[in-house]
Amino acid sequence: MEYSYVVRGATAKCTQGTDPGVLNLPTCHGVYSRGKPVMNIADHVSGQNIGCFGFCKLTGDVCVPQTPFKWSDGKEDVLIDNEPALLSKSKLVCSASGIITIETDGQD
Ligand SMILES: [Zn+2]
Prior knowledge:
Structural class: mainly beta
Number of strands: 8
Number of domains: 1
Bound molecules: zinc ion
Radius of gyration: 13 Å
Shape: globular
CATH topology: Tumour Suppressor Smad4
Strand content: 25-35%
CATH class: Mainly Beta
Largest sheet: 4 strands, antiparallel
Helix content: under 10%
Strand order of the largest sheet: 2-1-8-7
C-alpha cells in the first residue's frame, strides 16, 4: 500500500473525539506538493498544528489534545526541514488515550 504525503489543510480525527479537525501549518517548511506545503512529524503542536476534535467521548469536554510526542510512521528517507515527512498512515497519541489518525491528506 502506498501512503501519501500530508499537506496543510489535511483533516485528522481522534478515536475519542466526535468530529474531525483541520491540520494547520503556520510556517511552511519550503517543500510543496501540488502547491500545498508538506508537513512533517514534528508538526504535532496543540493549538498550532492540531486544533480541536469536537468533544471527547471519555471526558465530555472539548477535545483539544495535548500531544507531547511527534507523529509516528513518518517517511524516514524523505526529510522535510530535517524531520521525516508526515504520511497518511501516521498516528499521534491524544491526551485522553485517544489515537489521532489522518482522515484526508489535504492534497485534493
Ligand atoms: Zn482526543
